[in-house]
UniProtKB/TrEMBL annotation:
It comes from Kibdelosporangium aridum. InterPro entries: GroES-like_sf, NAD(P)-bd_dom_sf. GO terms for molecular function: metal ion binding; oxidoreductase activity. This is Dehydrogenase. Keywords: Metal-binding, Oxidoreductase, Zinc. Its cofactor is Zn(2+). Belongs to the zinc-containing alcohol dehydrogenase family.
Length: 322
């Protein structure tokens, strides 16, 4: 009998027993060594704030239970294949699986972590995959002036990926001055919202706040576009869609990781997108997104502290001993 983390009710979670079924020849048995807490989405689930209209859209690939609770939810898991096809046994893999000590999934559901990517960093694969999809949606051009508003896990990952485009001006914008250190580690410029440079061709918004989205529109040049990555749950957002929104011919377009970006949908699949994310994670700069590490037994307390805002930081890594 293995163990897994469950959200039992809004704001309350615990670790309980988990049954691992006998696996078929084309399945793999994976022993988890690290998982990551996706701060934005997982705390929203933990607080019971997924709107009923999005219950199906928000399901994780290997979720058990239904929203609002009880539910086993998560998707940043790195482990070692203990049993399965010979070419995978002993390999370190990433899987979109919740927080659980061991699990069985089809072999096609795991991606081998390259030798030049430490397992500790590979928990970011799902987040960097989201960033890759956003950049495919945004389709930046050489020399673009770009702002990324929101230096959380997703926003910071997007800024890091965009910084590799030639001759671009990339600025990471956040209301928390402490995020300047994260930006410096990622190799991108930082600004507070009131100090951000305007005249942007492209703004990626990831704060999930009304104020952040309004500021994103303000920073755009004529014919500029906002790529909206925020998940607002059941909250409504008021925007000034008169004034300069029309006179500058601005656009707002959604990006969401559930589908491969339209620009690549006919030529790339989910496995291709994951592979790109894993290749990018060879860069040690992404370590700036990991704020701390806790043992698996402390996960209920960690989730509660993240949901209340008591525990700061970006991605918190969960360590599975033994």
């Amino acid at each position: 009998m293995e163990r897994a983390f469950w959200v039992r009710s809004a704001g309350r979670g615990d670790i309980g027993p988990a049954h691992v079924q006998q696996h078929a020849p084309d399945d793999v048995l994976v022993r988890t060594i690290f998982s990551g807490v996706s701060r934005g989405t997982e705390t929203l689930v933990f607080r019971g704030e997924v709107p009923p209209s999005q219950y199906e859209a928000m399901r994780a690939p290997f979720q058990e239970g239904d929203f609002p609770a009880p539910v086993k939810y998560g998707y940043l898991n790195v482990g070692v294949v203990e049993e399965g096809p010979g070419h995978l046994v002993g390999r370190t893999v990433f899987c979109l699986y919740p927080h659980q000590t061991r699990y069985v999934v089809p072999a096609t559901a795991v991606s081998v972590v390259p030798d030049n990517v430490p397992p500790e960093r590979a928990i970011l694969t799902g987040t960097v995959e989201t960033a890759v999809n956003a950049v495919w949606d945004a389709a930046p051009m050489i020399g673009d002036r770009i702002a990324v508003i929101g230096a959380g896990m997703v926003g910071a990952s997007v800024a890091k990926v965009l910084s590799g485009f030639p001759a671009t001006r990339v600025q990471l914008v956040d209301a928390d001055p402490a995020k300047a250190e994260v930006a410096a580690s990622l190799g991108v410029d930082f600004a507070l919202p009131q100090d951000a440079k305007d005249g942007c061709d492209l703004v990626v918004h990831a704060t999930a706040t009304e104020a952040g989205l309004v500021r994103a529109l303000e920073l755009l040049a004529e014919d500029g576009e906002v790529i909206e990555m925020s998940w607002y749950g059941d909250r409504r957002v008021n925007l000034p869609l008169g004034e300069w929104f029309h006179s500058r011919r601005l656009s707002i377009r959604a990006s969401q990781v559930g589908k491969v970006a339209k620009a690549r949908r006919t030529s790339r699949d989910y496995a291709d997108r994951l592979a790109v994310a894993l290749d990018l994670l060879a860069d040690p700069g992404f370590d700036a997104l990991i704020s701390g590490e806790f043992p698996f037994d402390e996960l209920p307390r960690v989730m509660s502290s993240l949901a209340s805002g008591e525990l700061p930081g970006l991605c918190h890594r969960i360590r599975y001993d033994g």
